[in-house]
């Protein structure tokens, strides 16, 4: 699989976590276009992002250009996780786990059984191949007859998971943890590009 795991990601992890708690969390209702949820509970956009970008730059060994970044806490009772891809958000994704729980928590990667796809094609390719509706339905349903789990990374506190954004993946557990921000599963997510030698986004 095309991913990198970095433990002890940031020396400032407690400061970053407390900055997210101080700012708070709410429901975000974006227009995500053709694929993706339109309701995201437990979202936070304010906090010590600079310290996380600093750590991410060290981890990838080069300049990173964030396309979007946020904190998210997921609790029991929020919308269930679905299998998805971050292809339209950037070329790479970084998930940093800010909490650790007795209950198993992390991120899993999947392959779509009927097509053999491990990454989501572009929207244009999906439309041209006639797979758009099938993949949309299967990503939301998470039907185990449609997907095979390929790998899993446990969500250890201050661990970063960095991977190619098009990969099919999902958070775990599906239903979140705890009942509030303090007891929930908290992550920092950054969708980003790397800066190429001629200033291009790669």
List the helices and strands and how they pair.
Elements: E1 3-6, H1 13-23, E2 26-28, E3 40-44, H2 49-60, E4 64-74, E5 92-97, E6 106-112, H3 123-129, H4 132-141, E7 147-154, E8 159-164, E9 169-172, E10 185-194
What do you see in this structure?
The chain is of the alpha+beta class and 202 residues long. The chain contains 4 helices and 10 strands; from the N terminus they run E-H-E-E-H-E-E-E-H-H-E-E-E-E. The strands form 2 sheets. The chain has a 7-stranded antiparallel β-sheet with strand order 1-8-5-10-4-3-2. A 3-stranded antiparallel β-sheet has the order 7-6-9, with no helix packed on it. The longest helix is centred in the N-terminal third of the chain and has 12 residues, at 49-60. It starts with a strand and ends in an 8-residue tail after the last strand. The mean pLDDT is 95.
Please outline what is shown here:
This protein is α+β, with helices and mostly antiparallel strands and 202 residues long.
The profile of the biggest β sheet is: 7 strands, antiparallel
- What class would the helix/strand composition place it in? alpha+beta
Give the CA-CA distance, first to last residue: 19 Å
Number of domains: 1
For the secondary structure, the number of strands is: 10
What Rg do the Cα atoms give?
A: 17 Å
CATH superfamily name?
q2cbj1_9rhob like domain
- Mean pLDDT across the residues is 95
Number of helices: 4
Report the principal-axis shape: globular
Question: Largest sheet, order of strands side by side?
Answer: 1-8-5-10-4-3-2
User: What share of residues is helical?
Assistant: 10-25%
